[in-house]
Amino acid sequence: MTRAAVIGTGHYVPDRVVTNDELTRWMNTSDEWITQRSGIRERRWVETDADGKVTETGAEMGAKAARAAMDQAQVAPEEIDLVIYATLNPDCFFPGNGVFIEDLLGLKTAGAMDIRNQCSGFVYGLAAADGFIRAGTARTVLLIGGEIQSTALNLSTQGREMAVLFGDGAGAVVVQATDDTDRGVLASVLHSQGRFAKDLWLEAPTALVRERINQDLIDQGRHYPTMDGKLVFKHATRRFCEAIGAVLEKGGHTIDEVDLLVPHQANQRITEAVGARVGLPPEKVFSNIAKYGNTTAATIPIALSEAAAAGRLESGDLVVTVAFGSGFTWGANLIRW
Ligand SMILES: CC(C)(COP(=O)(O)OP(=O)(O)OC[C@H]1O[C@@H](n2cnc3c(N)ncnc32)[C@H](O)[C@@H]1OP(=O)(O)O)[C@@H](O)C(=O)NCCC(=O)NCCS
Fold first, then answer.
1. Does pTM top 0.85 for this prediction?
2. Which of 161, 164, 299 to mutate to test the pocket of ligand 1 (most atoms within 8 A of CB)?
3. pLDDT value, residue 66
4. In the chain, at which residue ranges do the beta strands (DSSP E only) sit?
5. How remote is the CA of residue 170 from the centroid of ligand 1, in Å?
6. pLDDT reported for residue 306
7. What ranges do the domains of the chain cover?
8. Catalytic residue numbers, as ranges
9. How far is the CA of 161 from the centre of ligand 1 (A)?
10. What CATH superfamily classification does 3-178 receive?
11. Nearest CA residue ID for atom 41, ligand 1
């Protein structure tokens, strides 16, 4: 039986650190409010020039993360069969960022696709990579999560509930076929509930309006992401726990066997509540939200890369990745590292 093993991780975040205090330049907020409510102390933003244009693209960030993962995996560009790029912030409406990565990395016409599943994009992407590998469609998959969120945020006090939470960055993993049945993705669970689609969304630009964007949409702030924070918090906490239980059951394991839980980093209070509810001690629950905020699809691969670098992911470890986000969509992967 073929399994899909994670054989390399990498990440890249922009140099520019934006502290909570810096945000008070634009909006009525405080370090105390942000730290207490979310656990976030700072985040990274891409630099912008005098015209507001970014100095590096999402695809360029993704390519840097991917190169690091490929170096660690000792995989050459010719070996990559498929690029899966997870994001809610593609550099353009179409094509997806996967093809820009293919070109930047010189991947010699490898297949490329984007997954638009927001915060759960990496979990969906890993399930897809696993499926493609086990079906024989691909042998080596480059899975990247990358986001430029900073250019979308409403930095006025009106937008503060969203703006303080999100950051930019990219993470990547190389996933490869192995005959070692004790290793790799053991199970995944994927879910959605579209009736909550508009409770965490970004409406415009939209194909439903001629020219895709107009002054009315901008005047009404409908080009900014919005959410019902309390509703998201409540659903996220519940669905994280359900997904962890379901993926463990599907893979035939129990919570006591888990070496590391790598949850999507939406809010430190969510992470702590989930860890406590599923019965994992804090040292088995990875957290880096204080440094990066919520980097959406990039969160889990950045966390995996940091956890691996810190020696917290050893060969043979049982790892659960779990995410919840806009859609609502959520899911989990169970991985034997
Ligand atoms: C957004 C979130 C941090 C808010 O925390 P909370 O404990 O629910 O906050 P509360 O609703 O109790 O407090 C809101 C109050 O703080 C104010 N507030 C909101 N953002 C603020 C900010 N950045 N700075 C200061 N005050 C802020 C609100 O205006 C409100 O004031 P009011 O009570 O006078 O109306 C929290 O709901 C959350 O994390 N939700 C999930 C969001 C998420 O993860 N989204 C991505 C999905 S993956």
1. yes
2. 161
3. 98
4. 3-12, 17-19, 42-44, 82-86, 111-115, 140-147, 169-178, 184-192, 200-201, 226-227, 260-263, 318-325, 329-336
5. 25
6. 98
7. 3-178, 184-336
8. 119, 264, 294
9. 5
10. Thiolase/Chalcone synthase (3.40.47.10)
11. 233
